[in-house]
Design brief:
With 141 residues, this protein is α/β, with parallel strands linked by helices. It has one domain: Response regulator (Rossmann fold). 43% of the residues lie in helices and 13% in strands. A four-stranded parallel β-sheet has the order 2-1-3-4. The protein is globular, with a radius of gyration of 13 Å.
Length: 141
Amino acid sequence: MNNLKILFVCTGNTCRSPMAQAMASQLFEGFEVASAGVMAMDGQAASVNAVAAMNQRELDIIKHKAQILSEELITWADLVFTMTTSHKHAIGESDKVYTLGEYAGCGTSISDPFGGSLDDYLSCAEEIYNLLTKIKAKLER
């Protein structure tokens, strides 16, 4: 399933979805990945703790620029993974939109670490990574 295009969606596109994008770009060879936020401010940088959490995984998101979710991005993507059910509902019904947990088979929402400690971000990143590894196994079948 090479060249699959995956879009990760959260609220502001400064924490969860950029971390998911960075980790997925490392995990999913040959896939295109992007991220956006349902209430993002275009051009906003990734949060300091998101950058620090990714640095601990040897991933660099310092140049990340937030972008608002658009119809163009949804059309571009083969799969859209949201962090919560409310993000999924904001996009609307589609056979390619899932929460990350739903697609991974465990139905959990990813809590927003925004404003939290580095440990909150590290925990969030670990949760996302674990779901991504389950999704990778599913996509490779």
